[in-house]
Structure formats: structure tokens, C-alpha cells
Amino acid sequence: MTIKRSVDDAARPTLRRAPRPGLGEWPGITAAAWGLLFAVPSFVWAMGSTFGARSTVSPSLVELADDRVTWFVAVLWVTGFLKLFGALVGIGLTRRRGRWVGRLMVFCGGGATALLVWHGCLFVAHGVLVESGALSPAPDLVGLTRWYLYVWGPWFIVGGLAFAAATQRYVRRQDVRREVRLYGAVGVLGALLLSLASTVTGIG
User: Fold this and answer.
1) What DSSP letter does each residue of 96-128 carry, written as one string?
2) Residue 18: pLDDT above 60?
3) Tens digits of per-residue pLDDT, 142-164?
4) Separation between Cα atoms, residue 73 and residue 49, nearest integer Å
5) Is 140 left (phi over 0), alpha (psi -120 to 50) or beta?
6) Neighbouring C-beta atoms of residue 156, cutoff 10 Å
7) 110 near 186, Cβ under 8 Å?
8) Domain limits of the chain?
9) How does pLDDT run across 60-104, given as a tens digit for each residue?
């Protein structure tokens, strides 16, 4: 009896200190929810409705959606599925995965962080310049600047920060942090190069 009681007493502190399932996983869950919510407009517009678009995004884009331009509809479907994939990445970052799956999650998480934060900051910076009178908005964006400044810009930044926090938490759990962190850095670099190419070519 004495031996059994000693073993039980020794085990109790360990049981009390065991982490609750899901505790501390809110960044990944937030990133997943962000991706799911953001996918909804893409699919709605891809299916032919422009609900919510006319007063919040560029009229030139609304016109493309209204006219059912094939390449633009295809882009809407692709972006919708990419956002769903982003939700899967957020879920994937909530706990340790296999070696290659984990590195893929970190690569995608790093890329999403760079793209979203950069994109959001561009919207905010442009909005600040327009609101301060330092820059004149494009004709089709008159009246929409505040949407990009106060809604779309911050929305992208929040998503990027969620992916950043989820990716960082995931890396901290790994035994070989330097190797895993390298995948995230490559993802960030790739995303920035993609954004630069998009800016230079005017595509995207």
C-alpha cells in the first residue's frame, strides 16, 4: 500500500502540469478562421453575385465579375481555393506534424505572413497618403479609399500576424529549430519576390 501510494503521489504533479488540449493554439485557429471567412466573398463573386462588392472594391473589378470574364472568374475560383488552403495551413500549424508536412506548413505560413502583411501595409499607406492630400486616388477608387484604409488593409494585416504567430509557435515546438526556420524564411523570400514581380508587371 505504501509503495502504491508513493507512485500515485509522484504521478499526480505530472498529471496536474499536463497541458490542456488545444491550449495556446489560438494563432493557428485564428489564421484558419481568417482563411475561411475570406474565401466566402471569392466563391460568392465567382458564382455570379457581386453582393457587397460594389461599394467596397474597385468598380473595374466589379465590372469584370458582372461581365463573367472567363479569366477573372477563374482567378476568383483559384483565390477562393487558395484561401481555403490557407485555412488548412492554419490548422496544420496548431500541432506538430511529420517532417515534410511540418516544413511545408512553415514554408506556407511564412509566405502567407509576408504577402498579407505587405499587402495590408500597402493599402494602409496608400489610404493615409490619399486622406492626407499627399496623393490623388485613381478615378475608379474615389470614395473607396477609406474601405482600403480602415477595412481591407487592417484585415490583411491581422491575417498576416495570425499566420506569423502560428508559424512562430510551430517552430518553437521543433527539435531542429534552425532547419525548420529556414523553410519559413524561404517562404517569406518567395512571397516578397512574387509581390515584387506582380508590382513590376502590373499583374495581380
Assistant:
1) ---HHHHHHHHHHHHHHHHHHHHHHHHHHHHHH
2) no
3) 778 889 899 999 999 999 999 99
4) 11
5) alpha
6) 23
7) yes
8) 26-201
9) 888 888 899 999 999 999 999 999 999 999 999 998 888 899 999
